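User: Sequence recovery, please. Input:
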């Protein structure tokens, strides 16, 4: 039940934010269907490898929006959220389900990635607690 409630809250937040942006600002959302511009291979690759796909299709192919300071911040720190924002702006009118799935993957992927990294980093220093001495001692022991 918690998952359905989270999905509903994400859907309402995305719908509310896009409605506010569309009605009260001069942001225009795209009217192009996703599958007329991209295929299933692009969809799977952007979901599984967002940085690689953004770099290849942005720099080499030019099939996605590219550039700007915020784009580069999103590319380095939160690529899945960048993909979800680009999907919202480009395909909200034609592929709402795809945009919602992009946001679910973005929020779930970013949070689970950060959780796994922090859990591994917490357990990493404990591996070397049993060693007594300094790094200089360890360097001489390797040479002997």
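Assistant: Recovered sequence (144 residues):
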């Amino acid at each position: 039940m918690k998952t359905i409630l989270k999905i509903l809250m994400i859907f309402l937040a995305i719908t509310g934010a896009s409605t506010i942006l569309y009605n009260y600002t001069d942001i225009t959302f795209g009217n192009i269907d996703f599958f007329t511009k991209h295929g299933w291979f692009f969809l799977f690759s952007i979901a599984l490898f967002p940085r690689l796909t953004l770099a290849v299709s942005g720099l080499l192919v030019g099939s996605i929006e590219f550039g700007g300071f915020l784009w580069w911040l999103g590319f380095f720190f939160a690529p899945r959220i960048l993909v979800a924002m680009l999907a919202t702006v480009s395909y909200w009118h034609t592929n709402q389900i795809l945009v919602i799935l992009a946001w679910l993957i973005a929020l779930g992927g970013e949070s689970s990635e950060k959780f796994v990294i922090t859990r591994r980093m917490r357990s990493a220093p404990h591996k070397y607690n049993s060693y007594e001495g300094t790094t200089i001692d360890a360097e001489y022991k390797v040479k002997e």
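Residues 2-124 form one domain.
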